[in-house]
Design a protein that fits this description.
Blueprint (H helix, E strand, L loop, with lengths): L1 H28 L6 H18 L4 H23 L5 H20 L1 H4 L11 E3 L2 E3 L2 H24 L1 H11 L1 H6 L4 H27 L9 H14 L6 H17 L9 H19 L15
Antiparallel strand pairs: 1-2
Helix pairs in contact: 1-6, 1-9, 1-10, 1-11, 2-3, 2-4, 2-9, 3-4, 3-9, 6-7, 6-9, 7-9, 10-11, 11-12
Protein name: Branched-chain amino acid ABC transporter permease
Membrane topology: Multi-pass membrane protein
Subcellular location: Cell membrane
Length: 294
């Protein structure tokens, strides 16, 4: 039981990092991306390749993963400069499909459907982080660090510019804000921080394949943000905890058919999102009629 709880807590921390980084562009920049799982995957594959061929040091693998994800995020940022709203959602969906295809077919780098195996434990100050408790502390520390970085960015002039663009892109442009640059930077920062979760995920499991970075992962991350509270600092964390605990709770409900647990989970997610949009559009943590905290 202890091993199960440690595993669940570690995965909650990793997914919370992803939800927070998605909320950074969704809740504060008004950019709704369906391709966040791609940058999660880029971070994981880059860290795995680096660990297998160069070094498993966290101080090297994570920065490299962040740089690669940030560079590739420009592919997503460029359409963000030209389209908005539902058009950007469609563009990001196309990128998600493209990313999954590359993950599945670039066998020399990603291992294809078979994935990457034998990823060594993360190295921290010369010590392998293989103990589950130690890795949970590492993941929790990264989560806290991402929260602090996000909070600092949102309190800065950059964060205020993001909110201005979210509320009215035309008004922000009229006040002399460089909307294109600000939106590009927000996507780059979000993707780079998402790569941190990818690196942690690769080191934690020691094995990764394309199934962890599919469209349903992006949808689940968006559900975590919306249910927790879009445009709030802790909302994505609350949403992550709730949606990560639900499968565990369902598995302990003896009266439910175990072969249908997956379908029941999806129904529960969808129902929760519909009810929240009707009765609490700001999410569990958020407030305000439009679901965005100013």
């Amino acid at each position: 039981m202890l091993a199960y709880l440690l595993n669940l807590a570690t995965l909650i921390c990793i997914n919370a990092v992803l939800a927070i980084t998605l909320n950074f562009i969704m809740g504060y920049a008004g950019i709704f991306s369906m391709a966040h799982a791609v940058f999660f995957g880029v971070g994981a594959y880059t860290a795995a390749y680096f660990a297998l061929n160069v070094s498993a040091s966290l101080f090297l693998a994570i920065p490299v993963a962040m740089v690669v994800a940030a560079a590739l995020s420009l592919v997503l940022a460029l359409p963000a400069l030209r389209v908005r709203g539902e058009y950007f959602v469609a563009a990001s969906l196309g990128l998600q499909v493209l990313g999954v295809t590359i993950f599945a077919e670039w066998k020399s780098f990603t291992g294809g459907l078979g994935g990457v195996i034998g990823i060594p434990p993360a190295d921290l100050f010369g010590h392998a982080v293989s103990d589950p408790v130690a890795f949970l502390m590492l993941a929790a520390g990264c989560l806290v660090l991402v929260i602090l970085i996000t909070n600092a960015l949102l309190r800065s002039s950059f964060g205020r510019n993001l909110k201005a663009i979210r509320d009215s892109e035309s008004a922000a442009h009229a006040f002399g804000k460089n909307v294109a640059v600000i939106k590009t930077l927000s996507v780059v920062i979000s993707s780079a921080l998402a790569a941190v979760a990818g690196a942690l995920y690769a080191f934690y499991l020691g094995f990764i394949n394309v199934e962890s970075f599919m469209l349903d992962t992006s949808v689940l991350l968006m559900a975590m943000v919306i249910i927790g509270g879009t445009g709030t600092l802790m909302g994505p964390v609350v949403g992550t905890v709730l949606l990560m605990l639900l499968p565990s709770l369902f598995s302990y409900m003896w009266f439910l058919p175990q072969t249908e647990i997956g379908a029941i989970q999806q129904i529960a997610y969808g129902t929760a999102m519909v009810l929240l949009m009707i009765f609490r559009p700001g999410g569990l943590v958020g407030s305000g009629k439009n679901g965005v905290v100013k």
